[in-house]
Specification:
Its EC number is 2.7.7.49. By secondary structure, this protein is of the alpha+beta class. Helix content is about 30%, strand content about 25%.
Amino acid sequence: MKAAFYDDDEAIPHVNAAMRFASKGSKESSIKNQSTKDTLFGVSLEVEVALLGEGGTKLFVTALLDSGCSHSTVLRTAVPPIYTMRPSEITFSMPNGSHSSTREAVTMPIILHSLTPPRSCAVNFQVAEKLIYTIILGVDFLVDQQVVLDFKSKIVIWDGVEFSLVGNQPIRSLGIRNGHQPFRSNQLEYQPIRSASLLEAAEDRWMRILGVMNSPVALEKIVCRDLLTNTQVQSALDLLERYKTLFSGAIGTIKLPPYVIPLKLDAVPHVCHPYPIPESHMASVKAEIQRLVGLGVLVPDIQSPWASPPFFIPKKDGSMRLISDFRKLNAQIIRKYFPLPKIPVTMRSMRYKAFKTVIDLVMGYFGRVLAEENRECTAIILPFGKYVYKRLPMGLASSSDEFHSTMLHLLGDLDYVLVYLDDIMVVSDNFNDHLVHLDVVFARLCEYGMMVNPQKCRIAAPEVEYLGYMLTPDGIRPIESKVDAIIKIAPPKTRRQLKRFLGMINYYRDMLPQRAKTLAGLNKLTSPNVPFKWTHQHHDEFEQAKRLIAERTLLAYPDFTKPFHVYTDASKLAMGGYIEQDGKPIAFWFKTTSPAQANYAANKLELLSIVCLLTEFRGILLGHQLIIHTDHKNLLYSKMGNAQMHRWRLLIEEFGPRISYVPGKSNVMADSLSRLKTMDQRRPESICALTFDPTSIFPLDLATIADHQAKDPDIVDDMQLRRQEISGHIVFTTPDGKIRLPKSLPRAVFDTYHSWLLHPGSNSALNSLKEIFHWPSMSKNVSDWSKSC
């Protein structure tokens, strides 16, 4: 639980970041969001509530509405004596690794004065001895009250009323101060609520391209008013109104001859078994397939000799997104690399343009119709049937080449338009010209049946970000995040850290023509005969070396006619990597691992580092020859025993890379970036916990488990087991918090896990099951059942 428990009476510093919930059609009420610091976790907001005491008296308190906290909690001294507490032991862990517990719970009614009119409800609270807030309303409360937190649109929907967040400060969440105790329920690992990461951005892009927008966006919201008069704003809106069907978000059909997939002459159809689908997801999967059939993206098939297995990603609303695993098919496609424009060269030669518009095409790939003659090769196989794509699918090796050639056919002759796949930018010297240019672009998009995503558009803006560059009134500059990984390296504190830094610097010795002179003092300090004492001279040399490499990297523009080489590495501390061409760096990348990521296996962490780097520099890498160098040989193979890793592997497939093995000792730069500390690097102090929802882990509810446990005498008579309340159900657990399964359930649980994890080996399956369950002969059972698969 973030910022919940504390051990001292020191004052709580906070930032007065006033937020207002402006209710549509109701009285506006102020809500204050006090924050100690920004974190990567959920939103925390203050709300006014009243506790009902004896005789109907009310105690008004400020409660923390915290989407990063699993269980609602109340301060013991605030509980009126009329309420009876019940035993309920929930374990939480402190940053130093020790554990403590809340031992009681209580159900109390509260009145929510932040709603108009106020309403009352009963809440199940854990009782804590010390809290920063009198009450913390966690995810269990949000679920019970059906509160919707829409981070993308910055709105909150509560009790049927929609609130918009208004104010200059962003939503912030509360972090744990030193000495405070983060909450981790039942000693289970939870995925924290956090802001969008690079990986999430990659998955979101798949969602955006594969999904159909149903809710239109008000066109006035996409017009940038910074440089425009009221008359000009109205002129822009009039133009958008003429093309409002272009911004509807509906699926389009590009009016070009159908696309023939370029298969090799010796291509041989392949067939894969369908991936298993959990029974709890089957209805949602079938609904998504029928939706795509209704949109004309898929068509049922029984004739195709091909069969690729699809993969499904659950959405927050319970529906599914389809991603097809075309890796076998991609190996039999002739990749026709279509020359993408040299964006940096084009922008460097471009004169200053006052007005810029960025246009994003939604579902661009699905707008391209596939030729009937060989679309059978896109057949996907499911447990309940077989389907063929009628539209260009994501994940196909040639999709990006074909789509970009289509876009250049549409807009390539316009010298005021830059096109890179589904990203379009229109630039003009003055507003009148800009309207004319936009008119031409919109007309062509309409003529060819394209559709635009209004949520990603900016019309007539003075400053925009485009493919890794900022176009500003002062000129064009690269995004400095390219060299953040170098700039933020902290001064070494040991001789070993210094040697690692110098090894990284020497890797690019050609970029430092006077390297011996620049690094003279640092080189001497590596000698065991010289005391390691960091002086101002050493610090100056250290900073100068970083600055020289950073300056030269910012000036290095990629050559899109040559292959890109990507190197990554990962450690428990961080992930790092870089992009290289002709032995020269194009960009550096660095990311601190989260506490959960630090527990990943080495191959999983390595795969994550690749996905994150590709996502960060997608604008440079996508659609070009790409070679990924890794020191983990198992990443070269297609089979992934972990469902999450399998999904990441499919995200990589969009880039159509060739993966090459490089020995770890040769991966000097990436290895150094992943192990050198940065100046702002620190572990997040908090560990968030979501409500324990067993149905999201296995298809047996806690009531069923409790019922089977009660019928098993070996469990009922075992004095070493504990009776523990989990989500309102009393179940038997081991002393270390694992659910003790009765004799009737282990095989059913194993079969579910084994299917969901895509039939892993016995060790992987056992490790996954041990995170939550325990039963006698567990290791032997899992080994025997895995062998019979």
